[in-house]
Specification:
The two termini are 35 Å apart. 51% of the residues lie in helices and 0% in strands. The longest helix is centred in the first third of the chain and has 13 residues. With 90 residues, it is mainly alpha-helical.
């Protein structure tokens, strides 16, 4: 993908592109959505491309940030409530 666009993609998106290319139909539009940033997987991307890729400072800050995990039951209403609460109080 980097050869075609100049931009690397993450391993998950690369899987999606691989499948899309296998089932591609002529004259039928195909869309693959990026599922993550390649900077999240620096070792895998470097291995695939043969060299390390630069990581923008904005992404480095995100990767260094403290992570929070909230466990909730498998319940749509609880998930909606959590999203609504976090959207109002980031």
């Amino acid at each position: 993908m980097q050869e075609a666009t100049g931009a690397p993609i993450d391993p998950h998106t690369a899987d999606g592109v691989t499948v899309a290319l296998r089932v591609l139909e002529p004259d039928f539009p195909t869309l693959v959505l990026e599922t993550a940033r390649p900077e999240k997987f620096p070792e895998t991307v470097a291995e695939a491309l043969g060299q390390a890729q630069p990581v923008p400072e904005s992404i480095q800050r995100l990767l260094r940030a403290e992570q929070h995990v909230v466990r909730i039951p498998n319940d749509e209403s609880r998930l909606r409530a959590l999203i609504a609460a976090d959207a109002l109080h980031p």
